[in-house]
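Cross-posting from the modeling subforum.

Setting up a comparison between two proteins and wanted a second pair of eyes on the formatting. Protein 1 (sequence, then structure tokens):
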Amino acid sequence: MPLPVELRDAAAGTFGLRLPGGRELALVLRAEGERLLAQAPGQPALPLVYLGEGTFGAAFDATLRLRLVSEVGRIIGVVLQQAGHTLEGSRQD
């Protein structure tokens, strides 16, 4: 499914994912052409596939889902789910 340009641009930014134990991990989403890339510190960028309705997945991992959380047309956070684990994060920029 093609990624709407306005959603791609609105999603770009840094989000603080809350890890168990209270630590926070920066997750950077950035637009590259018609794709959205996700990157955590020290990790390679992960290209995300748009699945529709503000949800993305990874082409190589069917268990990974990234859902954008919006409020009044602005992306304010993300929910990352993988293999039964859920992390939530809010926009940092």
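Protein 2 (same layout):
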Amino acid sequence: MRRLPRGWLACLVALGLMLPACGTQRLGRESGGQEAYSPQDAQPSGDTGVGTPLGTVTSGGASALEAPRTQKGSMGASAGAGISPGERTASDRGVTKTEIVLGVLAPDEATLAALGYTYEGKKHEEVMKPFVDEINETGGINGRKLVVKVTRFNSLNQDSMVSGCVQQAEDFKVFASIGLPGLWGDGEVCLSTKETPLVTANASSADTNYRREKGWTRQTQMTKDRMAKNWVDWVIATGRANSKTRNGIIYTDVPEDRQVVNDVFIPYMKHRGLQVTEVAALSYPGSSSPDASASQAETQASALKFKARDVELVWPATNWLQMYLWVQQADSTQYKPKYTVSDVSGMTSGYTTIYPPSQWNGVTGVTVAREGEVPAGVLPKDQAFKECEAVYKAHGQKVAPDPNNAAQLDETEMTNLALYCEHIALFAEVAKRAGANPARRSFLAAFDGLGTWARRVAITEKISFAKNKYDGADYIAVVKWQTGCGSYNGCYVQVEGFRKGTW
């Protein structure tokens, strides 16, 4: 068994993109849930994706409730501060006079065994406990104790995710849930049909956030739509492509990514004056194994077609596995185009460590994640992570050494530490703003009034939420793939720090 390579967060994101049903729409009233709440104007701007830049948020119908106004960045400031126990009520599902129930949907530690990887470190409950204890030791959520209910799911199985949704909403009766990377598609949509607010580290499309999930999800990542347009703008601004460049796009033909590529990505490239010479829509691989023989012939044919069409710059919007097969085929025919990458389908993933340097050395791209800021197995140095680590230590925990390399720290534990620290703190802040006796709709409305939020944001740069802005990340960094680092052939290293995206 192999250990997980560096960039574990991005690896889980990439895993989600391999799911065949990530854009299916079989869930709705038929699933047993009610029609989901939807702000009247919560639609992405423009059918083609050539719409309104960040900062000119569209106006429209009001949210269910106006968010209480509180001082930004103050963990304890809220509409419920100072309320007496006698004034608290059982105001909604998952809220009693004394407790508020938060759900967590976490990938099963054994799931990655299907890909030949294993994890031998701390369980999710151990890593999250310090951050839950801290809240309860400092007054809870407006005087209510925070109780967490954990559901595990298989990242490679949509039915498992839907079952996890049902357990959270119907069995545990949670007020809201946190979804870790790997929770995709029908699992997310199921939560919206069951009117369960979801705070997630996943990156979906605007179509998923606004139309399919109808405003029930807030993601700390950037939507694929905004990332695609930021990506195009960055490539043009840095001179990597111009009107004469022969560009090729590769994507996996699942509903969500098909919609992003055809309705947003390609129209925006053409809007910015770029030509699209070739587009390859790869079938979803029938196997999750890295040798995925069902995709060999298809990726070979695609690579040969790109070569015949003299594609100069390849834009992968597919998953790491199919792109791994694609670059192997390109290498075998001595076809060596230039590549550019982004988070649109997780191609800034740590799984690219296994890619052939003859194809991938020097590949540069944009990401919202703190990928490549520090070497593998070293504690991040940003202030948000330092604060998270301090809470972790104060409650008797410390990051363990890597079980297979005592000279490095366990990267999976560090990633989970950052994920739980950030998302539990964000949930707590918004829940406190949702009122003395919160409801799920007032919780969503409180997100609308959050504005910019930086406290304990350890996965990305600071984030922001507003009315009809359901994705948090606004800042992108530049990473470059280099040989001689990481566990395999190379790794991404951050070469330019964060700057605000154009979208």
